[in-house]
Specification:
Chain lengths: 532, 127, 451
């Protein structure tokens, strides 16, 4: 099979994708499910009412009732084909290597999926009496204990459902703890390398976010700037460890000590916990709070953007402020909720957090066990350093040091050839890879942030490195190919300016076309509509 | 070369006196750095702006920048055309892409700003 | 022990040699030596067979709703999940993809989110929607913060008929910034019956950013919302409506029709099993003019350079990764897979199917109420129209009734003594299309047998 994307010099790049759906070249858009609608068409079936039915008018006054509802009218096969087709336009861990820095796109074990699908877990109402959900409560309780052990922070709540949600929970706990001690604090210190969620969280919790710089040479927090800005108005400092350059903050013990001297808490953004699993416990180096992204470190699949989990782990001192209720183990060995928590910040989720995600992480940790957890951090760091070693000649490093679970390449390496990081990223797609995280952290201009995770093999890392090196060659020899990439995807680079200037955020009934008689017509119609 | 009838801030706003009215916008350098402008948020007529304080936001697809007033005063008019055509900021930064018309409360404030030559020098330091 | 890392000892040695170090320990030199490799009090790993047995045994310690009749609603609702949904959402391409940052290889997720946004807008009668928030409860918190930002005011009113758990989250979400939340009484007792108070709008003045009401409310009945939006608008405030089960929108008029400015709805129960209450997915919709203050991810349609229709994340300058401390919220994750389940659910049911489900719930709940209301000592306390949840007054404390029912293998209703000390004798009962007549008749029989 000839691939239209082969370089003009006739040599095929190392791993040029050709036969896979998402890399099969330009395709017609999939019509919206609304555009497939045919009046009167139906899917599924419902039983007739087994209770004597009354006229609806008697039960609900007409004025309260809906007159119109524009949902699609399609058959079951229409639904299955539509969403199956759409799935084929997605890149995923199950099919390919996903080196997205800071996102820990590791393999999501299938056993965890089966466990999460057990009816004895799925068919539970969140308000059932405690004695009827002992198995579920035990899962949450034991997961919290396991996370406490791995992080070295004894107070845990799995109620937060995302990283940013855990951050908000944590900083509100910091706030409550200061108020309890009669301290008025105004600021939260945040390194300039931090994720945007950190300053956004501080602002949401009512604090001023104060930026602390970084040391250009070491890639770590600028210790002098930190000391200059640290005072008794600081409620917390939010540290990401390892930081977003993938480097361990070697001064973290001192940072914690100095912060504590002025009553400032140290919050650890646990986005990068994968590097530390089994190697070092954040609680041991002095961190007071940490959220753990269960969907990164503890293998919950990302689901196209959630659901995840953002369990918050804290010191014994901060434990009273955890969201209520907390899950407890009674003296008789049964489990229950304890809502009698006078210092709690309150509830952060409608029920008990993402139970179904927690279930996966619990299964994952039990499967790995102590030795397996150690292997997570060790192999994640090994893979990252191996890949970094293979790439650091062709692409300079932002900081040339042993990295942890990820590393950041400097895309400015190729600037002289008119190539930007975005071009490298899009060209990687032609080679069959999801691009790394790009343009983050903000302190590294043209950043290319690569996180291979521990579940990838050496062959996969080598093949990816070969692709990156081939792109570096192309950048010098035929840069125009990079500007036009990706070539192999169903769709080309999209007009994001148009999307933002003239937002089209939903289908509208007014734009409904006459239902097409055949799929081919529907596709044609969608294509025409797309051209406007 | 930037227009010589304007004064400039370090945050890349320009201001031009037209009779008693000060017209405010962002410079060609600023629009080039931002890329395609997709949205401009401006204060309503009748509100006041203060020199060196923010008066609005200009957004591209992947960046948002605060706008800093080069001069204090009452807002007489915000450029309504930018609502539907934010691209004017890119295509005519010193013309149709203007943002505010202000009645300056203290025209001498302009003396503290850079003239075109000084601004051009300043831009060289940013390369 | 299970390992998901493929690297063999031999490969590890070769990779270490390539890097130029002796051992794994050399890669961790930056960690203070006294903290490196702490002993972990974690059990030995389990094989797949052992882990499966352990987890299955734990699951069987629970009384699940496939085997026990349950009349709990109160914010979590069990509807039938069509078989197609599980098959489609467990496809690895949906399950194991990340947030669609690279649109060329993420059109699947992006288009499903656009379809979800469209469905949310249709259901709620609003102009625009986002990719979802964590759940309805946090959605209420986000809506309150958004209303404060839009109106530049700091007072939020919330009806006391809004789900008490949502109100708890609202308190937490507004505890950082200086937002004052005032609870407005929206019901009262009239003999044994509970009726709507007519004072909802009276608390509104020019300092109020928004009023939050739930429709149907926590007690199951329809709130009197006509005229409310106009009254709020006159004060420059916003009507926020929260819906705890999107199925009800299959029969009820959309909140956009009665003037809501922001609508939050729980989208979990339409396409997903109860899951012990999580993950959920909050629908979040608002009027067009508020879109730049809306939290969360938004997908928009655009074209590629050949004019082909495609979808991208858009209006991102509202978000934390660009605006940092000035962002509309810190949220970045949505609940994409739950939203996808819901999108498939609504596509599968279609306009008629959703109405049919809602009407089945309506019929069953009214049948149950009629039967229980005919029992001596029991009265139907709900005085206003309702869809699937109804309040009954019992001859003894609801907690005792629930205990007695559980002893007979039935998970009863929600004990409203947990909602208000005035209502210890009241039960909130829920029926959905999954509740059978036999289960209702069994409930009625057991209630009549409790002495």
């Amino acid at each position: 099979m000839t691939d239209p994307t082969i370089s003009s010099n006739g040599t095929a790049p190392p791993k040029m994708a050709n036969s896979r759906g998402i890399f099969a070249g330009r395709q017609e858009p999939v019509p919206l499910i609304f555009e497939m609608s045919v009046p009167g068409r139906r899917a599924g079936s419902l039983p007739p009412s087994d209770v004597p039915a009354k006229p609806v008018d008697e039960l609900l006054p007409e004025g309260e009732r809906r007159r119109e509802l524009n949902l699609p009218e399609v058959s079951e096969l229409d639904v299955v084909r539509h969403f199956t087709r759409l799935s084929k336009r997605n890149y995923s861990v199950d099919s390919e290597f996903y080196p997205l820095g800071s996102c820990t796109m590791k393999y999501n074990p299938k056993l965890d999926e089966n466990v999460a699908g057990l009816p004895g877990f799925r068919q539970l109402h969140p308000l059932q009496p405690e004695q009827t959900v002992q198995g579920a409560l035990r899962v949450l309780y034991e997961l919290e204990r396991l996370l406490a052990e791995v992080t070295g922070l004894p107070g845990v709540s799995a109620q937060p459902v995302a990283g940013a949600h855990g951050e908000l929970t944590g900083i509100l706990m910091v706030r409550a703890a200061h108020i309890k001690q009669g301290r008025v604090r105004k600021k939260v210190l945040i390194p300039d390398s931090a994720h945007g969620t950190n300053p956004a969280t501080a602002a949401m919790a009512g604090y001023d976010a104060v930026t602390v710089g970084h040391n250009r040479r070491t890639g770590e927090l600028d210790f002098d700037d930190f000391k200059a800005k640290l005072d008794d108005e600081c409620a917390a400092i939010m540290m990401t460890v390892p930081n977003t350059l993938g480097l361990f903050e070697r001064q973290i013990v001192d940072i914690c000590r100095l912060a504590h001297e002025v009553g400032c808490y140290v919050y650890c953004d646990g986005a990068n916990l994968n590097a530390m699993v089994g190697q070092v416990r954040p609680g041991d180096f002095g961190v007071d709070l940490l959220h753990s992204n269960l969907h990164k470190t503890f293998a919950v699949p990302h689901g196209g953007g959630g659901p995840g989990g953002g369990a918050i782990c804290v010191t014994a001192e901060l434990e009273p402020f955890l969201p209520a209720p907390v899950i407890v183990r009674h003296a008789d060995g049964t489990y229950g909720f304890d809502a009698d928590r006078p210092d709690t910040i309150g509830r952060v989720h409608g029920f008990h957090g993402n139970f179904n995600a927690a279930l996966r992480s619990y299964t994952y940790i039990l499967s790995l066990g102590r030795e397996g957890l150690y292997d997570v951090g060790a192999n994640a760091v090994l893979n990252a350093n191996y890949l970094m070693h293979r790439l650091k000649e062709a692409y300079q490093l932002y900081v040339d040091r042993t990295c942890m679970h990820e590393f950041v390449l400097d895309g400015r390496t190729l600037r002289d050839h008119g190539i930007r990081t975005l071009d490298v990223a899009k060209r990687l797609i032609d080679y069959g890879y999801h691009p790394p995280t790009i343009y983050f952290p903000l302190i590294a201009p043209e950043a290319i942030m690569i996180e291979p995770t521990e579940t990838e093999s050496r062959e996969t890392l080598d093949a990816f490195a070969d692709a990156m090196l081939a792109i570096a060659r192309e950048a010098r020899e035929e840069p125009e190919r990079l500007h036009e990439a990706p070539h192999v995807t169903p769709i080309g680079r999209l007009d994001e300016v148009r999307a933002a200037r003239q937002p089209d955020l939903r289908w509208r009934a007014g734009t409904q076309r006459k239902a097409a008689a055949t799929p081919a017509e529907a596709r044609h119609e969608a294509a025409v509509q797309g051209r406007v | 070369m930037n227009p010589t009838d304007c004064k400039y801030t370090k945050e890349h706003e320009w201001v031009r006196l037209e009779g008693d009215t000060a017209v405010v916008g962002i410079t060609d350098y600023a629009q080039d750095q931002l890329g395609d402008v997709v949205f401009v948020e401006l204060p309503e007529a009748g509100s006041t702006v203060k020199q060196h304080e923010t008066f609005g936001v200009v957004e591209s697809v992947k960046a948002a920048s605060d706008l800093y007033a080069p001069v204090s005063g009452e807002v007489l008019e915000a450029n309504g055309a930018l609502q539907d055509s934010p691209e004017l900021v890119n295509t005519e930064p010193y013309g149709g892409g203007w943002m505010l018309k202000v009645r300056p409360s203290d025209p001498s404030e302009l003396d503290s700003l850079m003239d075109a030559a000084a601004y051009d020098e300043y831009l060289k330091t940013l390369q | 022990m299970t390992s998901y890392a493929p690297t063999t000892d031999q490969e590890r040695e070769a990779m270490l040699a390539a890097i130029g170090v002796q051992s794994i320990d050399d890669l961790f030199r930056d960690i203070p030596p006294h903290l490196y490799k702490p002993p972990l009090d974690v059990p030995e790993g389990l094989s797949e067979i052992e882990a499966w047995r352990h987890l299955r045994a734990l699951s069987e310690q629970n009384l699940d709703l496939d085997h026990y009749p349950c009349f709990l609603g109160a914010g979590a609702y069990r509807h039938y999940v069509p078989a197609v949904i599980g098959h489609l959402v467990s496809r690895g391409e949906f399950l194991t993809s990340y947030t669609p940052y690279q649109p060329e290889v993420s059109q699947g997720t992006l288009q499903t989110v656009y379809e979800w946004q469209s469905i949310v807008c249709e259901l709620t009668g609003m102009d625009v929607s986002n990719a979802s928030v964590y759940d309805a409860a946090t959605g209420v918190g986000e809506a309150a913060r958004m209303a404060c930002a839009l109106t530049r005011r700091r007072r939020v009113l919330v009806a006391d008929t809004v789900n008490p758990l949502y109100r708890e989250v609202l308190q937490t979400y507004t505890s950082g910034p200086d937002i004052e939340v005032t609870t407005v009484r929206a019901w009262r007792r009239d003999g044994t019956r509970l009726i709507r108070s007519e004072s909802l709008a009276d608390a509104v003045d020019d300092s109020v950013a928004c009023l939050i009401v739930q429709q149907p409310n926590f007690l199951g009945w329809l709130e009197q919302v006509d005229g409310l939006a106009a009254r709020l608008k006159a004060s420059g405030a916003i009507l926020v409506v929260v819906v705890s089960d999107a199925v009800t929108l299959g029969v009820l008029r959309p909140p956009g029709e009665y003037g809501a400015g922001i609508v939050v709805a729980e989208g979990k129960w339409t396409g997903g099993p109860p899951d012990f209450g999580g993950p959920l997915a909050g629908m979040f919709a608002c009027r067009q003019e508020y879109v730049r203050q809306m939290p969360g991810r938004i997908v928009g349609a655009t074209v590629d350079h050949d004019g082909r229709r495609g979808f991208v994340l858009t209006l991102a300058t509202r978000e934390q990764h660009i605006r940092r401390e000035k962002a509309t919220s810190n949220i970045c994750t949505s609940e994409a897979l739950v939203a996808l389940s819901s999108t498939i659910y609504f596509s599968h049911l279609g306009k008629q199917g959703l109405r049919d489900v809602a009407e089945l719930c309506l019929q069953k709940a009214h049948y149950a109420a009629d039967q229980i209301g005919a029992l001596p000592g029991y009265t139907v306390a709900t005085a206003a129209p309702y869809v699937m949840e109804c309040v009954v007054r019992c001859p003894r404390p609801a907690a005792e009734i629930n205990r007695a029912l559980l002893a007979r293998g039935i998970i009863g209703g929600f004990d409203l003594g947990r909602f208000s000390p005035e209502l210890t004798d009241y039960l909130l009962l829920c029926c959905t299309e999954l509740t059978t007549r036999a289960e209702i008749d069994q409930l009625v029989h057991e209630l009549s047998a409790i002495d």
